[in-house]
């Protein structure tokens, strides 16, 4: 981009220098050609200037041809030959006295006429952008309109003088300005149909041929009116300026990629039409200067008839072109509509066939669509829910009967913050007043970066909850039944290990120690299962106090230091701030569970960091390690019961798979949330939030865990790890 800007800047600078030099030289030449210098001197100045700029344009076109390919190369070669022919013709005219009359024709006239034909061939050869079938016909008709108009006007103005001329001389001298106008018109039309990189060349070429045409037209009028013409007048400036413009534009032309030619089309036929008739009117006005009487003759009538037919033909082809475009657009609209209907039908079929409930809301939280499964699960007709606020209509209130604040609803978070909620548990209220447990996934609906609403997918988990309840009851019953005999086993093994029945042999002592360690591990597992059961049942009491986060972190690190030392892992506190309203023992238990996991999955020499940060009305704790991390599809599953990242972890690393499940239950009982994320530089980070204290620690009376649950849905959503 920077180099492109430099190229544009240098191009503008070169154009400014060229314009200044051209303007200065034009003023000097105009002064000289308008002065009282002898006619021979003025003729020599004009002839030399014409030959010089012609050769310069020839060299410029030749230079650009060697650096181009395809049709551009051929067009530049034709222009190079045209400029060389013009230089030779002007040189011959200058050597022969630089005079012309209306009764004879010279080799210079034929050479200059060939120049115009070569220039026209170069313009037509120039590569165009992709065009429609009638474009070329319209371009030719445009040339006929302009050229025929010029001939008609000239015939009206100077028919008596033209009739007195030799027919061949008249054709040769009068056809030149017509060809100039046609070439200028074609170049202008090609300018609008060309690739972006070619427009500077064709635009300057169109201006150059227009100047050339004006000089040729004035020359023809003077030749017809006075009977002779000689070089050395200000009329010659048009030819010089035309050559100079073509030379400069070609020398500074770029070589566009061929793909640009395919991607460009004519901008608008209206522009082409306006251009054609503007050039025509300009030529007509210049031709009519000084006309006192208009006499229409047979030739003029024929020419005007041809022009009129060309105009009608041009409009006819334009109508055909527009009709083809209309039909093509209509066909595309029909096909696109059919495709959209098919896609919509397929989407509706898919949504309606899904067993899970799906509903969508707009950016105001109002329901816009509901699939049959959602309407059936909620006990409504689908149309009954359209236009209603989803949160207020069927989101169940808290156990106290107070509605949860809408700002903390996952629908509002998806719309407002663009957050995706996955597998969140919630309760929905059916139309008959029955409350059903659901598992929800909410996703923002975005288009070009703007959030238009959200899509919510939910599943009735009543049966799963019942299965979980039965399973938990069974595990609890078995744990209770195992606890009593296990206590007797531990006691007996303790007596044996203590020598109550006499000294044991080394082999027997080792076996007793193994049995005692295993029984203690089994006791811890049973205690964890029972604790988890009591917490989920709400039977485990919690005493809430205002606790400094730094003290909780310090206590947890002290208890985990022995395990960290044995594993060769360093523990470090990054930052600890905030005061939480929580149960000290349970928070420390949660931190110990997270620290134990981090130490267990860290290699010797690595570091485990702990920090706490105040975030609004909550304090966020984080335990981060540099271990192997957690697969993305298991970041939520690790908090379930008996879950391990790898099935071999239970054997190699130890643990029951209940630590994270217990931690989640503790945090949620205290009114917070817990989640896991992978660090960008490796390892995993476990974070959980707890309600921050609103008063000084010594002035805050304890409160119950049930009060903390009321604030649970106001916990901020998980922030990105790292």
How would you characterize the overall build of this protein?
Its EC number is 2.7.13.3. Residues 477-694 form the Histidine kinase domain. Residues 695-722 are annotated as: Disordered. With 722 residues, the protein is of the alpha+beta class. The chain folds into four domains: 29-325, Rhopdopsin 7-helix transmembrane proteins (Up-down Bundle); 355-460, PAS domain (Beta-Lactamase, 2-Layer Sandwich), CATH 3.30.450; 465-537, Helix Hairpins (Orthogonal Bundle); 545-714, Heat Shock Protein 90, CATH 3.30.565.10. 60% of the residues lie in helices and 13% in strands. It has helices at residues 2-33, 39-66, 70-95, 107-125, 135-164, 167-193, 199-226, 236-251, 258-263, 269-287, 298-353, 372-378, 382-385, 390-394, 410-417, 462-497, 506-537, 549-567, 584-600, 649-652, 659-669, 705-709; strands spanning 99-101, 228-230, 357-362, 367-370, 421-429, 435-447, 450-460, 545-548, 570-576, 579-582, 607-615, 618-624, 674-678, 684-691. The strands form four sheets. It has a five-stranded antiparallel β-sheet with strand order 4-3-7-6-5. A five-stranded mixed β-sheet has the order 9-11-12-14-13. A hairpin with a 2-residue loop joins strand 6 and strand 7. Helix 6 packs antiparallel against helix 7. The radius of gyration is 46 Å and the shape is elongated.
